[in-house]
Amino acid sequence: MLVALGVVAVVPDRLLRGTAFWRAEILAALWGLAGVTALIGASFRVEGELGWFPVFGADGPSLPMLAILACVGALVGRGRAGVACVLACLGVLALSPLVFGLFTGTALVLLAGRGKRGLCLPFAVLPACIPADSSLSVPLLGVMVLLVGWAVGVQRGPLAVLPACIGLFLLGRLLAEVGELPLLSQVVLLVCGGVVACAGLVQAMRDQQGTALVAGLAACWYGMLVFALVLALSSPLGGADTFRTTVVLGMGGPVVALLGILWTAQWREAIGSAVLRTQSARWLLGVVLLQCSALPPCGGFLVLWAALAGGNYSVEATQPVMALLALVLVVFFVGLGVVFNAGLVRAGLLLLSGPAGAVDAVPAMVLPLWVCAVLASVLAFLPGIWLFVADHLVVGPPLPPITWQDLTTVHFAGHAARLTPMLVLLGVALALCATGLLVRLFGFMPFAPTTRQVTAWRQGAPLCDTTPAQSGPQDDAGMDRLPLWPAWRGFLSAPSTVTALRAPGALPRRGVVLWRYARRRLFMVTGWCEAQGMVLILLLMGVGLLAGLFVGK
Question: Which of 226, 234, 231, 230 minimizes the C-alpha distance to 250?
């Protein structure tokens, strides 16, 4: 199937003759067949090498990763991108590290194209070509994480997930062979993962182009999974196996939903002015965005819950110093997830908006959204299915035999924590129904909009209107906006102000203005502290734990 996919992706139209019109459908069908075959093999735990060609074979992580790559290939299509997906699949199935490096390095070259990326990205597979216990292994792994994060951030469309899958597969393989790493090596890998995640978030929050924005979200997702993978396989924390479940969940529903967002952004840029105007298409995009978010019981919420459970078990089973370190790492991971959700909101506002004369999206743009939305919802609301299929995606203790009850729950081997997304969804639905019933019966709104008590010119700074005067009536909305620096510059440089400052009694009047401004800022800081109470409590607990290490008995 992979050979047929490579041939169909690059053969010219004149050789395919009448079937060239159906090339996209043929590629999608072959990729779907390859993905289903990989899922069936992973479910039945098929392992071993091919007797007639012992270069390729299947083991624990290969088949679940092949199913994810099949989803990427089905959305990518023909050309260099399709060949890169085929080479990545062959590299995942390779039994030799050198063969893996050959195929995946070629795939990265095809993704990079010309220029400095084409020169640098093949070096990302160097860790596969040296012994896992070498002293160069950890530095090369750090370079690999940074290079793959760079490759993810510069790709456009669903192809951004392909280098992330290659990097996670290689990192998981090598960390499983090395085992527990020294503290300095763990810090290097954690810093590299955090740098990639933060760089992706900066790109997602600053870029105005849809494809670049969503590629930044994909880079952040990759950095977060690198973070959890290092904690799962190389750290001595007591709850490391729960971080393994975090990685498996992160490679399920959120990846499929992220592919849907990447696909929508790519098609929107390719067509130019296509907008999702139909109600069903907008609902589908909303479902895909929700499955990436941290709202319960979506796929992103499952990942953050598993990370919090892992932090809880790590704090319980380790020494105080390591417990403090685990608490800091989990808070950082959750903070990345929160900012990631802000980037999702920004992506949703950008993808759902459009100019007045924009045309509606074509059916070829909506069909992949259907597949991504349905598949991501199934993996999120029935997580036991994906946990059973992808049990060996990350090396670790196998899960106990699955039952019908386990299909709907997230559970950890040897721990009592369990989460049932369907029950969470039912609770959220009941809360919404109860709120609607109260509004209907008693006629009040629980979240009434806040009203401004004082006007803008009385909030600590004078009014500075820099817009030219017009003959018509003034716009009240424009007068309400108050830029701080232009206001102070206009206030201090006005001739009347300069004259007043020279007169006696000017300093008390200016002091009154500054006091009003300082009091307003104090109220804002107090409100922020109240809103961020949980983060401040965690920081105070960490400071108290650190102080107890030195002053306690």
Answer: 226
Q: Is the Cβ–Cβ distance between 169 and 73 less than 8 Å?
A: no
The sign of the CA dihedral 484, 487, 493, 499 is negative
Residue the block writes with tokens 């990436």: 292
Helix (H) or strand (E) holding 336: helix 320-352
Q: How far is the C-alpha of 245 from the C-alpha of 227, rounded, in Å? A: 13
| The two structure tokens encoding residue 30 | 């072959």
C-alpha distances in Å from residue 138, one per residue of 91, 134, 203: 22, 8, 27
| The residue type at 6 | G
Distances (CA, A) of 10 to 30, 33, 90, 159, 429: 15, 19, 17, 17, 49
Measured CA distances, 83 to 2, 11, 87 (Å): 10, 11, 6
Neighbour-count burial for 261-270, b at 16+ CB within 10 Å, e otherwise: bbbbbbbbee
What is the model's pLDDT at position 551?
52
* Separation of CA 113 from chain center: 25
Angle of the 240-250 helix axis to the 299-317 helix axis, nearest 10 = 170
Cα–Cα distance for residue pair 529/308, rounded to 1 Å: 23
Residue 94: strand, helix, or coil: strand
Q: Which pair of tokens denotes residue 226?
A: 């690198």
Q: What is the pLDDT of residues 214-251, one digit of tens each?
A: 999 999 999 999 999 999 998 887 777 789 999 999 99
Q: Is 91 helix (H, G, I), strand (E, B) or coil?
A: helix
Question: Closest Cα partner for 407 from 381, 440, 374?
Answer: 381
pTM of the predicted structure, to 2 decimals = 0.78
Please tell me the number of Cα atoms within 13 Å of 283 on its side-chain side: 5
Helix (H, G, I), strand (E, B) or coil at 274: strand
Query: How many CB atoms are closer than 10 A to CB 471?
Result: 4
Count of residues making up the chain: 553
Using an 8 Å Cβ cutoff, are 275 and 204 in contact?
no
Q: Which amino acid is at 516?
A: R
- Determine the Cα–Cα distance for residues 79 and 157; give it in Å rounded to an integer: 14
Return the structure tokens found at 93.
Answer: 């199935």
Among the residue ranges 135-144, 175-184, 293-302, 529-538, the one predicted with the least confidence is 529-538
Q: Quote the pLDDT of residue 472.
A: 45
Query: For residue range 60-108, what is the model confidence (pLDDT) as tens digits?
Result: 899 999 999 999 999 987 888 899 999 999 999 998 888 898 889 888 8
Instruction: Give the Cα separation of 214 and 259 in Å (integer).
Output: 10
DSSP structure string for 348-374: HHHHH---TTPEEPPHHHHHHHHHHHH
Q: Which of 98, 104, 99 lies closest to 85 in space, CA to CA?
A: 104
Which residues are within 8 A (CB) of 483 and not within 5 positions of it... i.e. 6 or more apart? 464
